[in-house]
Sequence to fold (81 residues):
Amino acid sequence: MTAPSPASWRKLAACQGIDPEVFYPASDEDEAWEAKAICAECPVRQACLEHALANREREGVWGGTTERERRRIHRQRRKSA
Ligand code: SF4
Fold:
């Protein structure tokens, strides 16, 4: 199965219509819970996460992860490559 194109997965995003500020909390870990709760129910969470990893998105919650968590994923993938 191929990953959906950004245009197609964005149409299914659970965050559509939600205030984008929810996904850009001031403090990465402490205030990300609301965005993470929305992402947890999102049908395109994996595609969103892969998009953020591929594009080195530095800010915000993507695919249920904070910037710090995405850095950790990058490190883990580098180690196992
Ligand atoms: S995983 Fe989260 S940020 Fe990504 S599209 Fe879904 S709700 Fe939006």
